[in-house]
Specification:
single chain, alpha+beta, two-stranded antiparallel ribbon
Amino acid sequence: MVKSAYLRVYEPVDSVTVAVDRLPVADEISDAVHWSEYGLVDEPLREDALEADWKGHRYLCPRRPKLRLLEGVLAFHNAFVGGEVLVPETIAATAAAELQQLRDREPEQRSHILTSPWHVPLRWFVAFTPEDREIVQLEGAVSIRYRTDRRSATIRLSRALGILEAVGMDDGVVDNVRDFSDWIEKFSESALVELDYGSVAELFDDAQLVFDESAAEVWESIVALGAKDWERSARMYNEVSGRWSHAAAVTRLN
């Protein structure tokens, strides 16, 4: 299956209702492949939530698998030239109709999870600082996770947008960061924001992950931009983008 990284928003447990006997944690949901009318998916399609404990508090992240599946099918269909070959118009139309029905029935429902195949988008790192970084062990393998509160993530994204706009950065870069900021801002300030390398971590060896400081390098590049230190900004950007270039190349190849 496709190796993926995740950006998740967890809400305080008292604000989320799920009707299941046992809540899974993030690394338990992709152990098996499941079949849907839209193809294979690598997590169960039941409605439940992921559980996390952070700084003495318990949080839940609704998985909304059907919502995310439908949004993903349509995004894939619309994002690529030739997307209609892999996702035929009839399937896309069915997905669009089902998604609209879901939104009409539950207009407040939104996805709490962003998924990125084969790499971590650099804009995700803007929401975090090096202090948010955690080295985690999953089944004996090293991985990376960043966690922060939604308010801090929003402040950082706003600061980055101000710098990018002030220096006249390309509209495509600014729009990507703004869209990400707008998505996060819809959640409560007390929410937990988590970047999980997920199975993308398997593309690196343990030593590479231990020394991976992608969020630090992204922010060093942005701060240097604000100081108009173009050389340092370019050097730090090349450092972090180079780390992810081979993974991004897999995305393009697929």
